[in-house]
Amino acid sequence: MPIVTKAVFPVAGFGTRFLPATKAMPKELLPIIDKPIVQFAVEEAIAAGIIELIFVTGRNKRAVGDHFDTNLELESQLMAKGKTELRDLVRNIVPEGVSCMFVRQPEPLGLGHAVLCAAPAVGDNPFAVLLADDLMHGVNLPTKSLVDAFATVQHSILSVSEVPLQEVPKYGILKPGAREANGLIAVQGLVEKPEIQDAPSNMASFGRYVFTPEIFALLRKLKPGAGGEIQLADAIDQLAAQGKVAAIVNPSSRYDCGDKFGYLTAIVDLALSNPEYAERFAALLRDRIAKLEKPA
């Protein structure tokens, strides 16, 4: 029975919402305190049993590869200064037994096209897709839930969460079917960014998926959809019409780090959950709020 050991990370976007910071630095390397956004997704995948990491990059994303590559000069300097813990931290960004592969997306033709670019590296295997912009935080993370569920059902699965009605037009929205005893939800369709009155539910699909390789055949045949791009949601909708997609509720907190306020929220919440910074940072926030509330 096939298991999920490969994960695709589409990281070719320009990150225009964070200009000028992203003019020379990929948005995926923007830090949450001391860790780049994309590293959270990589660690989530590895914790789920993924051992082959496939990054779909653009022409200006060499720095992403450099981050996950070995840097012997840096390691030597850290060792020479007795900074063994930092050397180990840098060395173990990608643990032993986990491999990285980089695939070029020649043109920014949409998320569906980015996933399709990974087809030669994925081959005839099931695979996960993780969007680094969606940072997940918590004891239980969605990729592990998806991989475990796939081992049982052997078809494509989406991670989903309910969203406020006013946010429905921002996401791919599920047309849900029956809820099964194992916690999965049958997916009858997926509508990309519907108007509130046209939405089949308020259950949104976020940046974690597990697919069977049959998604590639659908992506190859797709015509450009919303925004003139190859939309992954359109292929999922077709697969759902065949009864081959399920969903599972995201067990963690999600932060939209492709949005400035979502990014700031992630920094605040992760700082408050960090034993090294939590107490001092909470005191700092209380002090700043008190100053804002103090009458002039």
UniProtKB/TrEMBL annotation:
It is an enzyme of class 2 (transferase). GO terms for molecular function: UTP:glucose-1-phosphate uridylyltransferase activity. InterPro entries: GalU_uridylyltTrfase_bac/arc, NTP_transferase_dom, Nucleotide-diphossugar_trans. Residues 11-268 form the Nucleotidyl transferase domain. It holds the Pfam family NTP_transferase. Belongs to the UDPGP type 2 family. NCBIfam families: galU. This is UTP--glucose-1-phosphate uridylyltransferase. It comes from Roseinatronobacter bogoriensis subsp. barguzinensis.
